[in-house]
């Protein structure tokens, strides 16, 4: 082992350990995109070219690995929520939040499931962060409703339903930006107090016959 591999950096990790950690995170995002966040940890280790023991030294649980793999995306979501609360126009803040999360869903195929899954938080810090995000979202919703822009019967759980719908679309059509943008516009318009507020983005080139529906691979079908 070279001398440089034994030198610890500012994060306390040796160069080789930091390299392994980076490879694991890259592999995790690829594996989660292809097989979902429930994919075997051994599959991630194999894709990263490291042993399972090495993976677990860096990420002792699946939850820790998932959070680390999508830490930047989660940070972006948190920052967007903070900016939305600071926006003097609560509807604009609400709209930007949904568009940002959906953009991240489209860009990183493994992120939708990670964002929507309810992982058991292993630390008080993570639990508090989740609770604060929920309170902030409720505050944003109430402000937009008080301004008369967001329909009065909107519930925060409706946002989860909307993101699940968009998640399904980007999973089936990961490269169709037009379909994604149009669905997001439809969802946002349905949330507004005034229906059909503003024009929709251009339609997708998708035709009904080209939709990749689930297939039945059972014998005789």
From TrEMBL:
DNA-binding region range list: 40-59
Entries under InterPro entries matching the protein: Homeodomain-like_sf (IPR009057), HTH-type_TetR-like_transc_reg (IPR050109), HTH_TetR (IPR001647), Tet_transcr_reg_TetR-rel_C_sf (IPR036271), TetR_SbtR-like_C (IPR049445)
Pfam families associated with the record: TetR_C_43 (PF21597), TetR_N (PF00440)
Keyword Transmembrane helix set for record: no
Residue span, HTH tetR-type domain: 18-77
Keywords tagged on the record: DNA-binding, Transcription, Transcription regulation
Protein name per its UniProtKB record: TetR family transcriptional regulator
Species name: Streptomyces nodosus
